[in-house]
Amino acid sequence: xxxxxxxxxxxxxxxxxxxxxxxxxxxxxxxxxxxxxxxxxxxxxxxxxxxxxxxxxxxxxxxxxxxxxxxxxxxxxxxxxxxxxxxxxxxxxxxxxxxxxxxxxxxxxxxxxxxxxxxxxxxxxxxxxxxxxxxxxxxxxxxxxxxxxxxxxxxxxxxxxxxxxxxxxxxxxxxxxxxxxxxxxxxxxxxxxxxxxxxxxxxxxxxxxxxxxxxxxxxxxxxxxxxxxxxxxxxxxxxxxxxxxxxxxxxxxxxxxxxxxxxxxxxxxxxxxxxxxxxxxxxxxxxxxxxxxxxxxxxxxxxxxxxxxxxxxxxxxxxxxxxxxxxxxxxxxxxxxxxxxxxxxxxxxxxxxxxxxxxxxxxxxxxxxxxxxxxxxxxxxxxxxxxxxxxxxxxxxxxxxxxx
Length: 404
Fold this sequence. Notes:
With 404 residues, this protein is α/β, with parallel strands linked by helices. 38% of the residues lie in helices and 16% in strands. β9 and β10 (318-322) form a beta hairpin. α1 runs antiparallel to α3 and α6 (93-102) crosses α7 (134-141). The longest helix is centred in the middle third of the chain and has 24 residues, at 198-221.
């Protein structure tokens, strides 16, 4: 079963991928090939040249040492050309210097692992590059419109891979991967105000686009491949234009990914919950939807049904939907009676003192308490010793345990 690592984009949030990658390698994961787009192209290429723990540690060090002017250098010439409508806001010299200084090979076909870099042509079509000058391929894949100039490769003007489909899951599947591990960067979900700089706002919008495209790719790929998505950081208030937080991002990503692996994240494919955020509202965003199902319906003989958009209630910063006005009234009278234990996190993971996002389709109601787990495999292990698992999780959960 060929395994591919897929590296999405996200500006400075690419540091998250370095942390997640360290835990995947520590867990024994070894891909057969890698695919990257945008900043993920840089991470994918570096890893393809040094696909081991030492290489990943070096990649983490690179991210910790980067500063914004290293990647986005502002020069009088570039600003003047931009104002005249003939250029980009930043020159590509800084990014080129980083790529040429650190990549351990000069041509894509010379990498230790096969690597494919995804860019976008002027028609909007995705272009996959697996041979030729590595630096040119990375610069093309990371050529954010307005920020960087397009790059000519083999007679074609190419730009950032995010425009066509930044999480190149479909590219990996087309290359023969039956098992795909996506290293996502997520997005800054808990900013209280929009980023001040125009380029920062543009990058933030790009990360939102990436998240939507990832959800689209999951639907398109269906059962053609087993897709596993490493966790994003949530809440997160770091702009993809901010490079001073790399160490924090790496450490958080390592912890969350280690917990996700321990809770069985690599044992079964990820669902849409792997992409969704459950943050408090920020930047004018709506109060987030906790999950699609009516929480009261879990306690009926028929089991969970999806709630209706016109029947909602907000509790503790999250929206809940209901299948009927009666269920809405029951919830509003006693919300604690119907909410999942441990804030909706995986019960199996909580028994091990780890917080891992669960799948609300994988559930059990025991003694009038609702429990979620991350996947069916983990759920089966949890059910085999549920009483002990619940006892341990109750002791580990930092908040009050919900009573029926």
